[in-house]
Amino acid sequence: MDKSTQPEAVSSVLKVFNILEMLGEQKEIGVSELSHRLMMSKATTYRFLQTMKMLGYVSQQGEADKYSLTLKLFELGSKSLEWVDLVNIAEKEMRIISDETNETIHLGALDQGTIIYVHKIDSSYALRMHSRVGRRNPLHTTAIGKVLLSNREEDFIRHTFSDVEFVKSTPNTLENVEQLIEELAKVKQQHFGEDNEEQEPGLRCIAAPVYDRFGNIIAGVSISFPTIRFDEEKKSHYIKLLHSAGRKISEQLGFKDYPIQ
Predict the structure, then answer these.
(1) Which tens digits make up the pLDDT trace of 191-224?
(2) Domain boundary at 38, 70, 102, which?
(3) Which among 35, 153, 204, 250 could disulfide-bond with 211, CB atoms 3.0 to 4.6 Å apart, if both were Cys?
């Protein structure tokens, strides 16, 4: 931001939040009273209110000079609380998998075209996956990423990856959107996703979906492990653990029809 405009921008932000706080204290209020309480000109107050109305945060009572808050702020706050609830709920189920496998357990979500890790339990082994909460990874190279995309329409997938360069991190990395769409059909059918050394050589990952109360996949829970500590006999057991965790987390979020029982 240009330093010459920064004070004005900060002042505008303060005015917006002052208006929101004042509206939050009363069911409805007129422009004149609001401008008087905030010590702002009536014209400035009106201009801010009209912008906030256009954005959906404020409603005007017909043609009357009365304004009130909408539920949009509540909606934003609820989304934030949902992530807090998700991590708190998932912790117990992730801990069960961790105690059973001693491997790295992740909880990841879709954000800005990438997967972001929102919770993690480290492996007890010295040789383990190095990651951290808040780290981002590509969707198409990760088990959680594939799970998050598995219920999306093909048009969404093509749009999301229209500007994505499919960099081959390993020889197993998917090379284009056509391969990804084919892979996602498989993930949707089997209800789990895999990273078979696609993100990093020598590292595998299996993930299962977590659903919100509306049946949308909002997260994935995964087990990550070095290939030297894995054999195919463990795979079905890992998948069973992940489905159990995904189902229980989803149920606590209000979704009762998990695909795998």
Answers:
(1) 999 999 998 899 999 999 999 988 999 999 999 9
(2) 70
(3) 250
- Torsion angles phi and psi, residue 167, rounded to 5: -75, 130
Q: Is residue 258 part of a domain?
A: no
In a domain, 164, yes or no: yes
| Tally of domains within the chain | 2
**Residue 212 carries which DSSP code?**
-
Secondary structure (DSSP) of 228-257: GG--HHHHHHHHHHHHHHHHHHHHHTT---
Instruction: Tell me the two tokens of residue 235.
Output: 């795979």
Q: Is-contact 57 71, C-beta < 8 A?
A: no
Rounded to the nearest 10 degrees, what angle do helices 31-38 and 42-55 cross at?
Answer: 110
d(CA 61, CA 199): 54
Nearest in space to 209 (alpha carbons), one of 179, 234, 181, 239: 239
- CA neighbours closer than 13 Å in the CB half-sphere of residue 225: 20
Q: What's the pLDDT tens digit per position in 167-180?
A: 888 999 998 999 99
Q: Among 32, 50, 70, identify where a domain stops.
A: 70
Classified as helix, coil or strand, 45 is: helix
Q: Which residues contact 208 (CB under 8 A, 6 or more apart)?
A: 147, 191, 192, 193, 220, 221, 222, 239, 242, 243, 245, 246, 260
Give the chain's end-to-end CA distance (angstroms, integer). Answer: 52
Q: Which residues contact 120 (CB under 8 A, 6 or more apart)?
A: 104, 105, 106, 107, 131, 132, 133
Beta bridge partners of 69: 58
- Check whether residue 240 and residue 118 sit in a common domain: yes
